[in-house]
């Protein structure tokens, strides 16, 4: 289980704008390239653990300030799906 968590966290922490846009499209999350750029810039280098509720909540709140509440909510729902 820990290995899978590491893989998921690594993928999130190192996602590119294009990858993020691809995943957003796959999961029905509407993101612009500008929003994806901002998300990548905000997450890069922070080594976020989305399996930790406090860290995930903080990231989502930070992202809501940058990209808006609705896209941030949709990303949180995606994160929750990934950790189940």
Automatic annotation (TrEMBL):
InterPro entries: DUF2624. Pfam families: DUF2624. It comes from the Bacteria. This is DUF2624 domain-containing protein.
């Amino acid at each position: 289980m820990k290995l899978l968590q590491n893989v998921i966290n690594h993928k999130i922490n190192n996602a590119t704008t294009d990858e993020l846009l691809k995943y957003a499209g796959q999961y029905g999350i509407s993101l612009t390239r500008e929003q994806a750029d901002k998300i990548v810039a905000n997450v890069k280098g922070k080594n976020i653990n989305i399996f930790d509720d406090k860290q995930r909540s903080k990231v989502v709140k930070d992202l809501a300030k940058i990209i808006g509440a609705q896209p941030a909510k949709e990303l949180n729902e995606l994160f929750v799906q990934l950790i189940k």
